[in-house]
Amino acid sequence: MSEIVAMPSAREPALMHPAQPALAPPRRAPGDRPRAPMRLRTPDRRTESVPSTDVRRRVLDLRDSFEPEAFIARAPILAAGAAAAGNGFKNVVCITLYNEPFELLRSSLSALILSIGGQRLAPAQAATGSCVVIIADGRNRIDPQIMRFFTKLGVIDTGRSFSALGETVHLSRKRIDEVMTALGAPGDLMGEIDFAVCVKDENRGKLHSHALFFQWICPELRPELCYQLDAGTVVEAGAVSNLVAYMDERPDVAAAASRILTPTPGDAASTLSIWQYMDFVMQKAVTWPTEVASGYLSVIPGQFCVFRWSAVSAPCSDDDETRPLDAYLRGLNAIEPLERVMFLAEDRVFGNEIVLAQDKSWRIGYCPAAEATTDACDTFGELLRQRRRWQNSALAVRLWLWGRLPAYLARSDKTLLDKARFSASMLWQGLLTASEVMSPAFLLLLIFAAAGGLVHAQNAAAAAAVGGALLACSGLAWLTLTGRPSRWRRALCLARDATATLAVVLLLALAFFSNPLGQAALMTAPVFLMAAVIAFSMPGQRWPALRRLPVYLLTDRPISLILYAYALANVHNVSWGTKGLTRDPRGHSAEERRLRRLRDIIAGSIVAITALLVAVGFEYPGVWSGRKARSSRSSPSSSLSC
Question: CATH number of the domain that 108 lies in?
Answer without folding.
Answer: 3.90.550.10
